[in-house]
Amino acid sequence: MREGWRKITLNRPEKLNSFTVELHRQLAAALDEAAADETCRAVLLTGAGRGFCAGQDLEEIGSEPSAVGDLLREHYNPLIRRIRALPKPVVCAVNGVAAGAGANLAFACDIVLAARRAKFIQAFAKIALVPDSGGTWFLPRLVGEARARALALTGEAVSAEQAESWGMIWRAVDDEELASEAEKLLAHLATQPTAALGLIKRALLASASNTLDAQLDLEAELQEAAAGMPDYAEGIAAFAEKRPARFTGQ
Ligand code: LHQ
């Protein structure tokens, strides 16, 4: 636990942090702890070693089609939902290759930084599978239909720089600066109005399926909720007094 934020590291570096059921359990528990901890105001997700995450561990996967579906229903889908529903910012520091569900896990996070050596690969078609873990939902929204189709159908790798210029991620940074850039961002987020940031996440998520009319109504509802929170009073007071706000996250 850092000052106001938590770091979660996928830690199976010898297999590029590919997912076993055990790794899923550890990650779910770490995210739940971060969600429950009121002193934790932002989360950093990264990988140990030279890779970020190579998706499903292909040695552990069962041959039964229903087992493949169950893995998604029981582990990958709840993971993506957990991150999107977590009412605090989740930053992903992609330290190396992100393939298959590993790439889509990164796209589920709120802000993605990537080391220049990182690559994003929709590896699914290469093993005759379909992009999962939200890939078919995230990709067209991040990069548009044309690029989403080509990436999903070819499994071609996208470099961190290309990903940044396509708007797939927030920023590509020099390899040796990834950790410090991520920590700087987390340290900043940990001082921000956390509850309001949680409402911002909710609004953005809802916008994907709402009409403009419905979204305007939701914004009014969430704005009212934000305006009833202590951090809003502090934000207004700090503005009037021409000083930096001291948000508590409430
Ligand atoms: C691995 C893996 C891996 C095991 C590298 N598994 N060992 C969800 C649920 C249900 C069904 C299926 O789908 C899913 C979601 C998915 O994610 S499906 C897609 C699964 N992922 C992939 O297809 C990617 C497979 N990996 C690769 O293509 C390459 O390893 C990449 C491009 C990621 C990296 O290539 P390199 O940098 O050349 O590394 P490497 O291939 O040499 O890998 C290093 C080691 O990691 C190696 O082990 P070894 O014992 O030989 O040193 C690999 O076997 C192991 N590894 N990915 N997914």
UniProtKB/TrEMBL annotation:
Q: What is its EC number?
A: 5.3.3.18
GO terms, biological process: phenylacetate catabolic process
Q: Which CDD domains match?
A: crotonase-like
Return the InterPro entries for the record.
ClpP/crotonase-like_dom_sf, Enoyl-CoA_hydra/iso, Enoyl-CoA_hydra_C, PaaB1
The kind of enzyme this is, by top-level EC class, is: isomerase
Q: Does the keyword Iron apply?
A: no
Q: Which GO terms describe its molecular function?
A: isomerase activity
Q: Which domain of life is it from?
A: Bacteria
The UniProt keyword set, sorted, is:
Isomerase
**Family membership noted in the UniProt record:** Belongs to the enoyl-CoA hydratase/isomerase family.
PANTHER family per UniProt: EG:BACN32G11.4 PROTEIN, ENOYL-COA HYDRATASE
What is the protein's given name?
A: 2-(1,2-epoxy-1,2-dihydrophenyl)acetyl-CoA isomerase
Instruction: State the organism named in the record.
Output: Enterovirga aerilata
